[in-house]
Amino acid sequence: MKNKLMLAMWGLLLSAAPSAAQTVYDAAKFIDKDLNGTARFVSMGGAMSALGGDITTMNTNPAGMGIFRSSDFQASFGLSAYNSKSKTLDGTYKTDDVRADFNQIGFVYSSKIGNATALRYVNFGFNYRRAKSFFRKQAFSGPLGDFTQTQQMAQQADGIRYDAWDNAFTNDEIGWLSAIGYYGAVIDPAGENEEYIGMYDQGLGKLNVEERGHLDEYSFNVSFNVNDRVYLGLTLGAYDLNYKKYTSYLEDYPGTALEGYDLSSWNRIVGTGVDFKLGAIFRPFEDSPFRFGLAMHTPTFYSLEYKTSAILNSSVLDPSDGKVYDYSVRTSDQISSRGEMVRPFHFQSPWLFNVSLATTVGTQFAIDAEYEYQDYSYMKFKDVDGHDAVFDFENSTRKMAKVVHGVKVGMEFKPVPEFGIRAGYNYRTAIFQDNAYKDLPYYSIQTDTDYANTQDRHTVTFGIGYRGSMFYADLAYKFDTYNSNLYPFVVQEGHTIYPSTVTKVTNTRNQAMLTLGVRF
Question: What's the sign of the alpha-carbon dihedral 4, 10, 14, 20?
């Protein structure tokens, strides 16, 4: 239950602040990026940070662009098959979809300085790539056990005066989840102590989650070749974020006063971001092809808007007259004619560090291995003025995220100079602690209570490529899979957390890619 002293403290902070609009679960979605780019880069598992010589390396180790000794232009296209399988007590639910991809387009202009100077080449490059596709569908259906979403609504309402519900949707001290439950008659006052109760437990629940949108990355690179042994690079990254989520959640209570309700939520996060990437590749031994690379990515600084609206429909039996009354509560009727609440905010992602090793054997074989480190607990929310005090609650919950470790391995074999065979593997650890949960403050305007704790992610890749005197073409296949635990809501009593019934979800993505390019 919410502590009233904490309620008063947050009330003072929020007297001049916007209602909470996002959680660490929202933010983690656009920190984590897909393995995407050129077909050659993907087919080697993204492990090219020390090898370099591919346009996509400006997004991982900018120094990789310094390997180029000729100018280059290329574009990449693909086709993705998405699959989600949810195992619940009520059965197994599968969703499938096939979508075309425009993965990447970029160029590099290589400028030779000379052979007599230490600085041999200065290269300039640009690359667009689809850094993240948010497409995903998940589902849950079955008995809820001892806890329901109505209890989470009631907990958010605790401490609110009974006479304070007027204009609840524009009151910074009342959360929308509790307000929509109160007006929909699915939570009731419990007595004179400003406490509330959910109607019933032992209900049946059904959840459908659909996510859409993308994170696009535009990169501008300059790189340097020093004595063909030291390569340095800098990339400026600009991001365009468009994330959408629709949630439909139903609870049924046959034979009770609350016959049931359904809650639909529409959420969208849009905005832009910017970051810098610094990289270096060293060839320490003059007569050896062995090289190692170092790269550092600054936080991405986002300027974002959160947009949301919701509808709750309920059917409730009035014991005084024995009649069933239907309620329909629309947030769009409560706030403005625009139909959705808009909350601006700033967000800062954590730093990323990359270490890579690579070597070649003659002109036939190349291998690259690398490690990435990123501590998600250092993500940070700020207001539009750059202050984080009003987001103390949101920033405190980031500790449920943890360090993410990434390992990449890629190799290429050329039986003849014009033809290459490639394979790769990409592994990333889970983002959240096993006991992490989506914690909504009492003043939040979010009404979608579901969350998913994703587990380790595995990606296997294969590919082939042809290199002519000017023209080249590459094909890649990527299989990406990870499991997650999906929860419709969470209930908190004191310091004890009671997650709802868990659904085991397996997510997979099969992707085929084609890159066409020309060197000049």
Answer: negative
Contact between 157 and 207 (Cβ < 8 Å): no
Backbone angles phi, psi at 403, to 5 degrees: -70, 130
Cα 144 from Cα 132, distance rounded (Å): 33
Q: Which helix (H) or strand (E) holds 299?
A: none
Alpha-carbon span 264 to 233, nearest angstrom: 47
DSSP strands (E only) in 393-502:
403-416, 419-428, 451-467, 471-487, 490-493, 496-499
Contact 281, 293 (CB under 8 A): yes
Residue 111: CB atoms within 10 Å: 9
The two most distant CA atoms of the chain are separated, in Å, by 97
- All structural domains of the chain, each given as residue ranges with its CATH number in brackets, are 4-519 (2.40.160.60)
Q: H-helix or E-strand containing 219?
A: strand 204-226
Across the range 319-337, mean pLDDT stands at 81
CA 302 vs. chain centroid, Å, equals: 14
The answer to whether the CB of 106 falls within 8 A of the CB of 125 is: yes
Q: What are phi and psi of 501, to 5 degrees?
A: -55, 130
| Other CB atoms within 10 Å distance of the CB of residue 277 | 23
| Best CA proximity match to 151, nearest among 201, 205, 193, 203 | 201
* DSSP label at residue 395: H
* CA separation for the pair 211, 216 (Å, rounded): 16
The CA dihedral of 151, 153, 157, 162, to the nearest 10 degrees, is: -90
Residue 142: other Cβ atoms inside 10 A: 15
Containing 87, the helix (H) or strand (E) segment is strand 72-88
Residue 2 pLDDT level (bands cut at 50, 70, 90):
very low
Quote the pLDDT of residue 483.
Answer: 94
Render pLDDT for 414-435 as a digit per residue (tens, 0 to 9): 999 999 999 999 999 999 998 8
Instruction: Give tens-digit pLDDT for 246-294.
Output: 999 999 987 777 788 999 999 999 999 999 999 999 999 988 999 999 9
User: Residue 320 to residues 200, 316, 325, 411, 419: CA-CA distances in angstroms?
Assistant: 19, 12, 12, 74, 81
- Residue 502: other Cβ atoms inside 10 A: 16
Distance CA 58, CA 63 (A): 7
**Could you give the angle at which helices 149-157 and 176-183 cross, rounded to 10 degrees?**
110
Q: Is the pLDDT of residue 15 over 50?
A: no
Neighbours of 170 (CB within 10 A): 13
Distance CA(185)–CA(319), nearest Å, equals: 13
Of the given ranges (236-250, 325-339, 499-513), which has the lowest mean pLDDT? Answer: 325-339
Structural tokens at position 132: 């993240």
**Separation between Cα atoms, residue 257 and residue 324, nearest integer Å:** 8
Alpha-carbon distance values, 310 to 24, 27, 126, 177, 366 (Å): 21, 21, 41, 9, 53
